[in-house]
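About this split. The held-out portion is used to measure sequence recovery: a designer receives only the structure tokens and must propose an amino acid at every position. Recovery is the fraction of positions where the proposal matches the reference. Here is one held-out target exactly as it appears in the evaluation file.
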């Protein structure tokens, strides 16, 4: 055993090893494996006993289990006659014997003759079971159960006669349906009685949803014939679709017209089989081996339940011993592995059969047998609509309810299954309800308790962690809310206090303080704006009172002028000194082109200008004075170049009684300069004409 293996691969290796040791005569104990592999103890205790039961009788996934399993390689010569019956050919070979087509010569009718092989007589119980099978089937008189005509024995060969059904088993028909749908079906099992031509004919009728009228079908009892046709295809009727049984009609021509017809055909088959089972259950008889190969479909679309070789009287062990694991593994209900069976077990097997018909795939098909058993017990097959979206949702719901793993979740009676299928066919609401996601999780948990408990503990831990973290988050959020409320309250109080402080600063003329307090309440991005109308009022007052530009000077400026465009500024600054002889006048020029950098020009020594004017273009400024010069005469008007700071020209000192110049102004055209002069005994405006610049 490879110690590095783990998970499903390890379990499958253990199962194969356990089965091989059992076949070699050893009797390994479960404890030997559970002690060595405790992580797989649950699966070992659950599945290994089923492997023991299977190995006792030798079985495959699609073979009957128990003492009824066919013996491989045993096929004796075909007898020519058994009493009143003349053998025509072998039809099929199954768990309880071989089925022949025969003629009952006394009545001239064709029958199916089931014969118990000679090797079965080595076990006396086999003969008892064979007779009880015939008796059980003979007690059931139902339209969809193959009737038994009689039981007999000829020269030590035991047999019983049944009605001969002109048709094929559902597994053979499904083989052809899958081929029609473009699939790659597996080869039919040996001895299944698969007639390709007849199965193809029935498959076409099934897919199309139409079966041949009664007038076109062969009679159930036929006149005595010397022998059957050499080619079975010659005995098969043509279908109403115009195809011979041996031919393969175009898949597109059939499937293109089928639509929901095939699903409805499957539902009709389910109704008939469920009604037959309900009748058998009413008579306290369980079939225990419902599967496609035990359902015959004739050319009229009638389903016939056959092979009651594994049947058991409900509530008794009349036909099998307690502990016998009988049936076909792939179609066994999960509870069968625990030795339990009731009507719901047959419903489950029929549900799997309908699932396989709808999807053309078995619900469970894993290999080896240990993995197949594990699938049956714990895994859910894909939902039918996942494999074929054209399947009706209601029909899917009915099939899934029939094949639920828990018996309590299935239809309790086969008649309930038949009723829901009839409701689907009649387009009426079905009684079954789709299982919700929560319901599927709950059922999965019941089947996988260990994993479910682990997941539940993880979920609970996560839920508790989430609840704790949520509670902490809520508390932190509330704390943050309280802090935010306190901060907002403090901010409002600070704002009110600052507005009062601004009022006091305004009255004191403290512009810098006002600006500081206003700037404090500018909101940051994402923060609430607490400013009211009073903030806007103070801000507007501040903007009006704040100087646009500030210039420093050596003393007090007393005359300021500017050009109309505001780009050049000139002022007169009187520079005081301790001695009057040292006092002087400075011309200060500022221009936007020099970034308002002050330029200082000094007046001519001994002159004191009192008036200044700038030309509209800012290239020239004029100065004058109300004081006389040192010579006692009025000082002339002087024109200066603002770029060089040099005088351009000097005007007249004045005429007549002019003593001083009080003010100057350039006219808008810049070519004339007006001045106001003080005269002895009054004032008079004198205009100096045509000042050329």
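Reference sequence for scoring:
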């Amino acid at each position: 055993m490879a110690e590095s293996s783990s998970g499903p691969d390890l379990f499958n290796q253990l199962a194969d090893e356990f089965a091989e040791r059992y076949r070699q005569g050893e009797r390994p104990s479960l404890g030997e494996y559970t002690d060595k592999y405790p992580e797989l103890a649950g699966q070992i205790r659950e599945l290994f006993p089923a492997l023991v039961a299977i190995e006792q009788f030798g079985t495959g996934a699609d073979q009957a289990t128990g003492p009824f399993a066919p013996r491989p390689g045993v096929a004796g010569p075909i007898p020519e006659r058994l009493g009143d019956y003349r053998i025509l050919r072998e039809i099929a070979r199954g768990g309880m014997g071989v089925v022949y087509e025969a003629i009952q010569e006394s009545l001239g009718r064709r029958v199916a003759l089931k014969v118990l092989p000679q090797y079965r007589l080595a076990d006396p119980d086999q003969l008892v079971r064979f007779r009880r099978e015939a008796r059980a089937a003979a007690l059931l008189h139902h339209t969809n159960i193959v009737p038994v005509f009689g039981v007999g024995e000829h020269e030590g060969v035991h047999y019983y006669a049944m009605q001969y059904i002109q048709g094929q088993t559902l597994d053979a028909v499904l083989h052809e349906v899958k081929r029609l749908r473009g699939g790659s079906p597996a080869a039919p099992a040996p001895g299944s009685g698969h007639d390709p031509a007849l199965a193809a004919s029935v498959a076409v009728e099934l897919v199309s949803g139409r079966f041949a009228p009664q007038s076109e079908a062969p009679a159930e009892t036929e006149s005595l014939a010397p022998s059957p046709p050499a080619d079975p295809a010659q005995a098969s009727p043509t279908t109403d679709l115009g195809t011979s049984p041996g031919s393969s009609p175009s898949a597109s021509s059939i499937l293109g017209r089928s639509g929901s017809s095939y699903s409805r055909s499957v539902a009709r088959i389910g109704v008939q089989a469920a009604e037959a089972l309900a009748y058998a259950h009413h008579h306290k008889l369980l079939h225990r081996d419902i599967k496609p190969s035990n359902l015959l479909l004739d050319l009229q679309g009638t389903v016939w339940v056959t092979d009651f070789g594994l049947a058991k009287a409900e509530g008794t062990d009349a036909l099998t011993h307690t502990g016998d694991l009988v049936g076909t593994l792939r179609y066994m209900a999960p509870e069968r592995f625990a030795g339990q069976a009731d009507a719901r077990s047959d419903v489950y097997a029929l549900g799997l059969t309908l699932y396989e018909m709808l999807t053309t795939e078995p619900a469970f098909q894993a290999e080896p047998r240990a993995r197949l058993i594990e699938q049956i017990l714990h895994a859910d097959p894909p939902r039918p609509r996942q494999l074929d979206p054209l399947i009706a949702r209601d029909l899917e719901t009915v099939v899934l309810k029939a094949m639920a793993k828990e018996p309590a979740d299935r239809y309790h009676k086969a008649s309930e299954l038949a009723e829901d299928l009839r409701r689907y066919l009649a387009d009426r609401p079905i009684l079954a309800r789709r299982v919700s996601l929560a319901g599927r999780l709950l059922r999965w948990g019941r089947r996988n308790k260990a994993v479910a408990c682990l997941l539940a503990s993880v979920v609970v831990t996560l839920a508790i962690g989430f609840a704790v973290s949520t509670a902490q988050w809520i508390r932190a959020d509330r704390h943050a809310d309280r802090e935010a409320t306190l901060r907002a309250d403090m901010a409002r109080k600070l704002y009110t206090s600052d507005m009062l402080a601004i009022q006091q600063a305004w009255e004191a003329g403290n512009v810098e303080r006002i600006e500081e307090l206003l700037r404090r309440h500018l909101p940051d991005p994402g923060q609430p704006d607490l400013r009211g109308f009073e903030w806007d009022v103070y801000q507007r007052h501040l903007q009006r009172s704040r100087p646009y530009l500030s210039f420093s000077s050596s003393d007090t400026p007393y005359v300021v002028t500017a050009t109309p465009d505001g780009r050049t500024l000139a002022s007169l600054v009187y520079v005081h000194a301790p001695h009057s002889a040292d006092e002087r006048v400075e011309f200060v020029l500022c221009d936007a082109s020099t970034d308002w950098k002050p330029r200082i020009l000094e007046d001519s020594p001994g002159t004191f200008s009192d008036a200044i004017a700038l030309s509209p273009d800012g290239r020239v400024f004029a100065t004058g004075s109300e004081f006389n010069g040192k010579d006692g005469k009025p000082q002339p008007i002087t024109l200066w170049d603002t770029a060089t700071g040099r005088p351009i020209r000097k005007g007249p000192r004045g005429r007549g009684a002019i003593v001083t110049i009080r003010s100057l102004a350039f006219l808008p055209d810049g070519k004339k300069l007006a001045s106001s002069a003080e005269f002895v005994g009054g004032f008079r405006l004198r205009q100096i004409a045509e000042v050329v610049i």
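Annotator remark: The chain is about 35% helix and 20% strand.
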